[in-house]
Automatic annotation (TrEMBL):
Gene3D superfamilies with a match to the protein in the record: Rhodopsin 7-helix transmembrane proteins
The keyword Membrane is assigned to this record: yes
Organism encoding this protein: Steinernema hermaphroditum
Cellular localisation: Membrane
Species classification: Eukaryota, Metazoa, Ecdysozoa, Nematoda, Chromadorea
Main location: membrane
Protein name: G-protein coupled receptors family 1 profile domain-containing protein
Length: 325
């Protein structure tokens, strides 16, 4: 049998040369949402650096996750969005693979750190006296480094395992499998399928930890003790649980419509891809909405009571938890 001479590796990742009205709408949606996520993310990092209430385990975890979200959305700003709007055919498919590799690396780290933040909140509520001894500065730095390294190995699996590469498709508006052989019956990345489903399971486990946190908060409420801590814990629970819900919605859609070619599937692909960006926006906005200290700073006022409150320190300490090494 003669080889398929019409087969072009990475053809799924190339533009259609003449952008359609849908291309422009979807492209501008990706570009505008990603740009908003980048701006809000940078502002989050700025707040964490400038405000002492975030100079702790929670702040470091949040900053690391936010950096992941910024990196992921910068790829959309400089590649995914423009490619979808312009639909060029001269851009090599390799660029789409690089865009996925870089963007997914940062997005996966953001997802992993999202679980760490939720676990941090659960331990803060359930074990308040042990919290500052568990999350010392050294432990936090090591944990963050491990998460970055872990994600690096996950991304390398796409490139090392034969015929599993994925890239951004400006015509399908999402990350898709780049078929490496015309005779290959499989039209999906095995590595991608495993990673997506594993991420879904991890995110679901995070929601379970949220339930544990909620149960503990209810117990504290019924006991009638620590009213001030209760109000603060409710804020933090809402902050993390709302994010987990939107993340679960995005991951569920990604798992369900992965590489779907139907017209309905196409709409779901667009929705799933943009919902993940919206999740990053939601995460950045949550820091502002659920923290009165941040809102006071934005409003240009600094209440003395707010300034003195160490909102994210669960147990009182004579010194900052960052010196508990």
């Amino acid at each position: 049998m003669l080889p398929n001479e019409s087969f072009v590796f990475g053809s799924e990742l190339m533009g259609r040369s003449s952008p359609t009205r849908v291309d422009r709408i979807v492209g501008f949606s990706i570009l505008s949402l990603a740009f908003s996520a980048v701006i809000l993310g940078v502002y989050n990092v700025y707040l964490i650096k400038k405000m002492k209430i975030f100079h702790n385990a929670f702040g470091w975890f949040w900053a690391s996750r936010t950096i992941g979200e910024i990196g992921s959305n910068l790829v959309h700003v400089f590649y995914s969005g423009p490619m979808t709007i312009l639909q060029p055919t001269f851009v090599s498919p390799t660029a789409g693979i690089v865009a996925f590799t870089v963007g997914y690396f940062f997005a996966c780290h953001a997802c992993v750190m999202h679980q760490v933040v939720s676990l941090n909140r659960m331990l803060a509520v359930c074990t308040p006296l042990k919290y500052r001894f568990i999350f010392t500065k050294r432990v936090c730095h090591v944990l963050i480094a491990i998460c970055w390294i872990e994600v690096l190995f996950v991304i390398l699996a796409y490139l090392v395992v034969p015929c599993n590469m994925v890239g951004y498709s400006p015509t399908l508006y999402e990350y898709v499998f780049a078929k490496c052989d015309p005779d290959l019956e499989r039209d999906y990345s095995i590595v991608g399928t495993v990673v997506n489903r594993f991420c879904w399971c991890v995110c679901f486990a995070t929601m379970v930890s949220d339930v544990v946190t909620l149960v503990k908060i209810i117990q504290i409420k019924k006991s009638g003790t620590n009213t001030k801590d209760f109000q603060r814990d409710v804020r933090f629970f809402c902050q993390t649980s709302v994010q987990n819900i939107t993340m679960m919605i995005a991951l569920t859609m990604i798992v369900l419509v992965n590489n779907s070619k139907s017209s309905d599937g196409m709409l779901m692909q667009i929705f799933a891809f943009n919902t993940l960006i919206l999740t990053h926006i939601n995460n950045a906005v949550a820091l502002i909405v659920f923290n009165p200290e941040v809102r006071a700073r934005i409003a240009g006022r600094q209440s003395s009571s707010i300034a003195r409150e160490s909102s994210h320190r669960i147990a009182p300490s004579k010194t900052s938890e960052w010196h508990q090494n």
